[in-house]
Amino acid sequence: MRSLLLGDDPRASHEASYEPLLSLTPERQRSTFRQNCLAVGALFAGAYVDAVMQSWIDRLHDRHRDLLPDMGIDALSSFAHLSHDLPDVLLVSVTILSLVRVLLHRRRVTLLRRYAVLQGLILFLRSMTISVTRLPGPRGPSCRNVMPADLNPLLGGVLVLTRQILTCGDVMFSGHTSAMVLWALITNSADRRAGDHLPSRLKSPIRIAIWALVWCGAFVIIATRFHYTVDVIVAVMLTCSMVWLYTALVQIGVYRTKVEIDDDRLEAGGFGRVVALVSWLERE
């Protein structure tokens, strides 16, 4: 249970050594290439769909609607003077520190693949939540990033994705928070896997620094009216749930190969195929 909550892999104690990529057979190299392509494709597809929905919803967004009452924004009103660029700075900081941490692990490719797949799925879910119910942006009329009315949403998605246009109407939920929490959970998983090149004495300080930046980022997002408090809470809950579900699927795949499991029960509703896909993505 502890490994499930922390996002660990039950194979950690058996991962003392791995073959370098160059020693893999041609067939295994092709499989690794397909795994990586699927992960990167999931990430970019999710990001693009989310960006398209941002560009579409922003044209419909009314910046003059009454703002929603928010306890978090009210409680942190004394920090409202902070730069609106600070959430981006903290997200980049968490990303860089987490990347350094993950790249020092021998299973870095698998960990990055896991991040890409989960981030793509989370962004796809976000594309639905920001569009089905339009909420007034927490910054109100002060958010002046107006989407051109005649801009095709498909092109607008490219402009949003490349940060050439910023939007105000994508509220529920916080993409910055979900990305930071996901990175933190991925680094937690790296800390508990064998094959680590990082000295043990540095693991805790780096993990603490990453989580400190994550929670600092969450408070800054609320304080600067980047998002409502509920956007941040939903982002944390959804991201943790996605990571725990993914980890549970990995564990089911591992135990399926070790003990006898009723395949008919796994196949119900296509669940067995999901387990097989996740197991394939995690395969070294």
UniProtKB/TrEMBL annotation:
It is found in: Membrane. The chain crosses the membrane at residues 37-57, 86-104, 206-226, 232-255. InterPro entries: Sphingomyelin_synth-like (IPR045221), Sphingomyelin_synth-like_dom (IPR025749). Its main location: membrane. It is a multi-pass membrane protein. One of its GO terms (biological process) is ceramide biosynthetic process. GO terms for molecular function: ceramide cholinephosphotransferase activity; sphingomyelin synthase activity. Residues 167-247 form the Sphingomyelin synthase-like domain. Keywords: Lipid metabolism, Membrane, Sphingolipid metabolism, Transferase, Transmembrane, Transmembrane helix. Pfam families: PAP2_C. One of its GO terms (cellular component) is Golgi membrane. Belongs to the sphingomyelin synthase family. This is Sphingomyelin synthase-like domain-containing protein. It comes from Plasmodiophora brassicae. The lineage of its organism: Eukaryota, Sar, Rhizaria, Endomyxa, Phytomyxea.
